[in-house]
Amino acid sequence: MKKITFFIGSLEEGGAERVVSHLTSYLADKGHEVLLVLYHDRELFYPPDPRVEIVSAGKETENGGLLKRLLWLRKFFRRNSSVVVSFLAVFNMMAILSTRGLPIPVLVADRNDPHFVPANPLIRKARDFLYRFADGIIIQTNHNKQYFSKAVQKKSTVIYNPLSLGERKGEALRTSKEDLIVSVGRLMPQKNQAMLIRAFAGIHKEYPDFRLAIFGEGPARKELEELIASLSLEDYVLLPGSEKMVFDKICPARLFVLSSNYEGMPNALAEAMCLGLPCVSTSVSGATDMIQSNKNGILVDLDDQKQLEDAMRRILSDPSLAARMSENAVKLNGVLDKSVIAEQWRSYILSFCSDLSQFDCSRE
Fold this sequence. Notes:
By secondary structure, this protein is of the alpha/beta class. Helix content is 41%, strand content 16%.
C-alpha cells in the first residue's frame, strides 16, 4: 500500500518542522502508513514517531545537486506515495515540479507571511505561479490567504498550527514567578529581537532586578551580543540558545514578548499563551488571529519600540491585569489543541484520496 508522504527540508529547529513531527506522529497513531522525505541529511531536532519512515534525499543522492534530487524525488514519489504533503515555499515548489504529470495529489503548506517569504522577489513570483498547479494549499491564517490570487485562494484552506501541551496547559499559572521576561525564536532579523532588547533597556531602568532571556539560535547572535554589550546589559539579557525543555524555562516568567516584523503563525506565541503567560506581540499574522488586545494579551504596531516598551511596562506594573490576560490566554488551547488541528489536517488530506485505489481511506 502506498503512503502519505510528507516532504520538508529537515527536522531542525523551527515551527514548520515541529508541525510536521506532530502531524506525522498523529497519522501514524491513527493507523496510516506515513513517509517523511527530508531534502537535507541533517540531525533531527523534532524526531517523529518511530513508526514514521524517514528518507533523506540528500543521502540517497549522495548530496547531489538540485536536478539530481528532483529526478530522485519524482521517482520516489511515483513509487511510494498516494499523496504528497509538502512544507515551506521552496520545497513546495520542488514537490510541484517533481510530480508534474504524475497521478499523485500534491498539497503544499505555506508556513510564513507570503508577502515577505521567500525573501527573493523572483522566487516569490515563481512560487505564486507554481501554486496554481498544486491540488491543495494549506495556509495558516486568513490574513496570509488574502495575499494569493483568486485561483490559488479557491484551492486553499486555513488550518492553524497544532499545539500539544496536554497536562501542561496553564502550567505558567501554577508556577512560582521570577523577575524574568522571555522570548522564543530564531535569532534572525525577521524576529527583530534587537527592538526587544532596546525596549528592555528602558524597562530595566525601572525594574533593575529583571532579566530578559531570548531562547533560540541563529545568524543574528553576534549582532545581538554586540547590542547587549553596547547597552551594558550583559548580566541582564541572556541568549541561552536552543532549549528542548523550553517550557520549563519560560513558565517562571512574568511576561512573554514576540517582537517579529512578520510571521506565518507564531508557534512560540501560541504556546506561551496556552501555558498561561501574559503576552505582548507585534501585530503580525497569526498574532492578530490569536490575541484580542487588552483581553488575552496586548498587540503593538510593527517595529514600534515605544509601544512595545509601554505594553511591557503596563503588564509588569499591573499584576491583576497580567493575571486576567493569562487566564484568558489559556482558553486558546481549545482551538489549537493538537488533536483538533491534526484531525483537520487528516480530513483534508483524505479528501484527496477518493480516486486512489491503493490508499486506505478509512477513518480509523
